[in-house]
Amino acid sequence: MATRDYAKRGRKPRSRGRRAAARPPFPWLRLVLVLALITGFGYFLWSIQGASDDAPVQPEAEIVKPQPKPKPKPESALPEKPQETWEYIETLPEKEVEVEVPKQQLGGPYQMQCGSFRKQGQAEEMKARIAFMGLESQVRRTQGSNGVWYRVVLGPYERKRVAESDRHTLQRGGINGCQIWLWN
Prior knowledge:
Blueprint: H1 28-54, H2 87-91, E1 110-117, H3 120-132, E2 138-144, E3 147-157, H4 160-172, E4 179-182
Antiparallel strand pairs: 1-3, 1-4, 2-3
Pfam families: SPOR (PF05036)
Organism: Ferrimonas sediminicola
Region (Disordered): 1-20, 63-83
């Protein structure tokens, strides 16, 4: 089969026998309906105007304003306002209220533990993640009844509020589950 060159083939010549697109017929029915509506509306307005010209003109009724009623004279005036006396104004400065406020004991220094691992490498990795957040932590080796544990600890903190602030910093960085305890 021979290859064809479609790019140089050119266009087909137009046939002269093709018929022009037919136009839709003029909407005579719509034109008649619109003219009938306009004529009817004009007749309606003309009849309203003629009805108002033919109607007898009635005189306008006089507007009667009601006369104000005379005010009765006050026969008895209100009694004078009594003088108020308040006892507490004189007695309050003489009173003393004693309240016992227990002294708040400072809980002592706090520490925050963010992890406890069996392998020291995992604890060091947690310490490095905390260091990237700008906080200093320590890895402590503890011997428990069930083996050796490596704890990642931050602190000591004088106030619990400072420890909670650091815990929120760690939570924003993706380290959750840190616990705040009293320092042992």
